[in-house]
Amino acid sequence: MxxxxxxxxxxxxxxxxxxxxxxxxxxxxxxxxxxxxAGLLVVVTLIAVLAPVISPHDPLQPAAVPQLQPGEQGFLxxxxxxxxxxxxxxxxxxxxxxxxxxxxxxxxxxxxxxxGLIAGAAGGFVDNLLMRVTDLFLALPAPILAIAVVxxxxxxxxxxxxxxxxxxxxxxxxxxxxxxxxxAARPHxxxxxxxxxxxxxxxxxxxxxxxxxxxxITASLDLGNLVLTLASxxxxxxxxxxxxxxxxxxxxxxxxxxxxxxxxxVMPGIAVAVMALIGNIAGDGVRNLLGDR
Length: 293
Description:
By secondary structure, the protein is an all-alpha fold. The chain has helices spanning 31-54, 86-122, 124-139, 142-153, 157-184, 187-194, 199-235, 247-253, 263-291.
């Protein structure tokens, strides 16, 4: 049997634009700016990895008198209501939020990618069945479904990740399936079929590589959304129990101090906003770089 190892052609399917948000970096942005934006993902990841090293204090133990203002007695972001260093708690909350977002993205890529690849490569009844299941998940309000799952299983960090992962894969399945169906009609795939190449080899060698850029772009654009989603669930009390350092939970637990010691609930919120903004800017940078290829 003759096999054909022709190069995979680039898909002409429109590059995904994210889950209903506008670009922060226009398509014509220079490559240097796009590379810098994409490099922010490395910076955020390094901060998360090095959080135990660069944190000045234990995030769970009091380090000074309560409610110190930012900059007072050497505490850059002040202390909270029981004297814990807010900077240390923000760094550890940053760490858990970022790694949680990466874990959900990885699970979405894996589950959605497999389902999208099978549906797009098989076609027919299998495609219709898998896409109807995907449509069922897409039709459900994702935040409410995630809250219901966490409420049923009980609040914990793992249950929060599981709940979000359950509702996050369908978008990836749709993206990958669309790319696979577009590539399946290309001449190089038809040539491989005529040469007698097996369906599994065609799917892995000729179809899957062409869908990877769109999947990577979608994943990079999702990081900012995931940070906000996970922080929202944590804010509602569906994350780790106290005294764990979580950005959303720290905002919620200290709301009563908003008018007097504003920095206690606001600093974790600023960290969430900065992380989400960096994720969106970096996602646009990755999209522009891969879209130019």
